[in-house]
Protein: DUF481 domain-containing protein
Amino acid sequence: MKKILLLFFLLFFLKITAQISDTLVLKNNDIIVGEIKTMNKGIVQIETDYSKDDFKLEWKYVKSIGSERVHIINLSNGNLLNGKITKTKTPNKCEITNVETQTKSIVNLADIVRIKPVDDSFWHRLDASFDAGIKLTKAQSLQQLTINVNLGYTAKKWYGTAMFKQIQSIQDDSDPIRRIDTDVSYVHLLPKDYFIPLSVVTLKNTEQDIDLRVVSKAGFGKYIIHSNKKYWGIASGLSFNHERFTETPEPNKSLELFLGSDLNLYDIGDFSIQSKVTFFPSLTESKRIRTDFSVDTKYDLPLDFFIKLSFVYNYDNKPKPGASKDDYVFQTTFGWKLD
Structure:
């Protein structure tokens, strides 16, 4: 009986040991053994058998990494590798074996921008966040509700995002204010930090009398900066604008160019800042140009909660007659994220 129990224990131990294949060595010489879930935006997440929740730590504190599993690895020079990671005797470096070409290369850890296991499950590839804000005042019975929902999915060579934002305000002796933004985007990653962006964006806005605007975009872009501290990408291409205004039966259709910039800073403590600006000079409407601008500042709290400050600005130099040329929204919200 003792031999059977001993054999069972050994088999169980070997099974657990076989499942644990990833190792992180920190700069203070602490060792974490487990299963790397992801490394992105300067944060590495690893699951262990001795902790209820996954460990999350800053990538800059890691001095050595090893894993026998196959990962998708993005480098700061734009290279995209599909390989295994081996520890080296030199601190702050690792050896990556490309499983497609069987070539080996020594890489600085600071040059690794993203690590994603190839065999990752659907839920580990999914990011989600929800935040909301409420404002109530006795004066003029003001009631304002803000809701923001964000989803993201990361695959081997592409990622997709979906966003929904709604602001609704009701006040005595004033027309109701309503604004709804949605954005569904797909980005296909190419070598050397080039990418192909595709998206469909919609807007409903009472301030500019927009009953519904649908903008479909396709273009080509490149990350000018892509590191563990920040990224900056620019893109350009064509967009088709289909818009319908309040009390105007006929829709307006136009073909536009788009020029966009996306800057994301995420190595500033518990803060992260993302700024986007896109210009839409029209090709079919003389001298018309539109601009969309946004800034999101997020402060992370314990238990994956966060506080977010957001500013959104829209400009159209040729709006519907009688409508405002621009509209802006400043909001403070409280939310929770799943990643």
About this structure: The chain has two helices and 21 strands. Residues 2-120 form one domain. The helical segments are 2-19, 122-125.
